[in-house]
Amino acid sequence: MLRVKSQILILNILIQMKRIIKNIAVFIASVSLISCGGSGNTATETSADLAEVKTTMDSSSSVIFYNIPSPLETFTILKMSGSSFDKKVLNPTDKISKYVSSFSKAANLGAYSTDLSLCFLYKQNQDFNGYLKNINDLTNALGVDGSYGQQVNKRLQTNSNNLDSLMAIVSEAGINADQYLKENQRNSTVATIAAGGWVEAMYIITNIAEKSQKKDVIGLVGDQKIVLKNLTNMLEQFVSDPEIKSLLVDMKDIASVYDNLQEKKGTPITSDKDIISVGNNTSYELSKEQLNSILEKITLLRNKISL
After folding, report:
1. Dist CA 4 CA 265 (whole Å)
2. Phi-psi bin for 294: left (phi > 0), alpha (psi -120 to 50), beta?
3. 3-class DSSP state of 55
4. pLDDT for 145-181, tens place per residue?
5. What local confidence, expressed as pLDDT, does residue 126 receive?
6. Looking at per-residue confidence, does 255 or 275 come out higher?
7. How many domains does the chain fold into?
């Protein structure tokens, strides 16, 4: 147990370092991009694909993006804590036909990207392929350029057993996808995808935290306080969109629970010969009542998004 906790603390520090150079769009958009190439065939038409999609062009040229950890990073910590894979917490792939508006497509593209991350990390190959197809369909339906997606997909498959290689490929693809979306003034789409991905990740970790009552997993829920603040700050820039405005209201309701969390200063990491002291981490104490409140609110929001 001590070894696992030490590994988790080290990984948290590495993630904090990564946050400095990564923006909120990189992972979510890149996971979407990975699927664009597929097997080289045209995406199967679904009712979601056939629906008219209105591309929203942002008038603002000074949109600010905020740093958050990717779902893959968060789920890596989840797995290291000893939590097992639970398919029941994922958004079912057969719901894709319900996503007909641009907002629902973008939000659930984020959600399915999060689910894909969990399936990959736990090596659930069959489920992984199902989410990959859905991401491909929604990406195409939203009009995100995937002209370079096939090569990325091949590299992903070739390196599917190497997590470090996967992260490198995802980061590279993310830079390209991020650039495409920004150059085409699709910043509100980026924000919606990111929010949908975060809501899905929160639904997963709060459910597992409530069932397992593991301190490490409950700590993950508490750590989302800063992430949620960053997301609400970013969404504030697009309140002229009524659907984003409604989403923001729900996310601020969740944030109201976090406002009452007590900050807890961690102690320096100094484990014998293997780990050098690196300073303090900040975490938040989360009571059982607060955890249940967050779970209730995030479940309501997630169900509203996933229909």
Report:
1. 20
2. alpha
3. coil
4. 554 556 666 776 777 666 566 556 655 655 666 666 6
5. 81
6. 255
7. 1
Buried b / exposed e along 135-167 (16+ C-beta atoms within 10 A): bbbbbbbbebbbeebeebbebbeeeeeeeeebb
247 CB neighbour count, 10 Å cutoff: 26
196 close to 107: Cβ distance less than 8 angstroms: yes
Look up the domain containing 199 and give its range. Answer: 2-306
Question: Backbone phi, then psi, for 45, in 5-degree steps?
Answer: -75, 135
Residue type, 268: P
The residue ranking higher by pLDDT, 30 or 220, is: 220
pLDDT at 123 over 90: no
**Residue 209: both structure tokens together:** 């935290």
What pTM does this model have? 0.75
Question: What whole-number distance in Å separates Cα of residue 9 and Cα of residue 39?
Answer: 39
Q: Which two tokens stand for residue 60?
A: 């603002």
* Structure tokens given for 171: 């980061």
Alpha-carbon distance of 198 to 107, in angstroms, equals 10
User: Two tokens at 93?
Assistant: 């792939």
Burial class of residue 256, CB neighbours in 10 A (0-12, 13-18, 19+): exposed
Six-digit token pair at 15?
């993630």
Q: How confident is the model at residue 133 (pLDDT cuts 50, 70, 90)?
A: confident
Distance CA 208, CA 160 (A): 26
d(CA 113, CA 31): 6
- Distance CA(213)–CA(231), nearest Å, equals 26
